Amino acid sequence: MQMEKLYQEIILDHYRAPHHAGLRDPFDTEVHHVNPTCGDEVTLRVDLDPAGSGGESVVRDISYDAMGCSISQASTSVLTDLAIGRPLPEVLRTLDAFTEMVTSRGTIDGDEDVLGDGIAFAGVSKYPARVKCALLGWMAFKDAAVQATDQVAGHVTTGAVAAPGEQENRS
């Protein structure tokens, strides 16, 4: 089987049977992001354990409700597999690696050891219109994680993290 077909199967598997889908309690933060170019939407909740592993926050849970294309929904499903139960700084590094790969226009293949099933989205980078779809859930997670961290630290979050024009934010 060619790698491209394998990657398509991974994306379709996550789309057909999304992991960790559905909004759950408890949570620290809820955000809602919209991709205005195609209408994909995700409402995502993050629950962090601020006293997790070695003093670092750990992602206890991510739950979401998504509407949109297979790429955006599958990408969010992959995100939950890669993030739940892991220290937040490690998850943010994975998010950076995923973002670098999908925005590379095909110049960066990505590291399967870091990205797991996320490597299936390497081909998306060749289609700029689909990059925002692949990043929707990841940027929602980043926004929610920053807001949750600010709440724990006693700060008030006043703005969103994702790129301007790519989201609607409510929390």
TrEMBL record:
CDD domains: IscU_like (cd06664). Residues 7-133 form the NIF system FeS cluster assembly NifU N-terminal domain. One of its GO terms (biological process) is iron-sulfur cluster assembly. GO terms for molecular function: iron ion binding; iron-sulfur cluster binding. It comes from the Bacteria. InterPro entries: NIF_FeS_clus_asmbl_NifU_N. PANTHER family: IRON-SULFUR CLUSTER ASSEMBLY ENZYME NIFU HOMOLOG. This is SUF system NifU family Fe-S cluster assembly protein. It comes from Nakamurella flava.
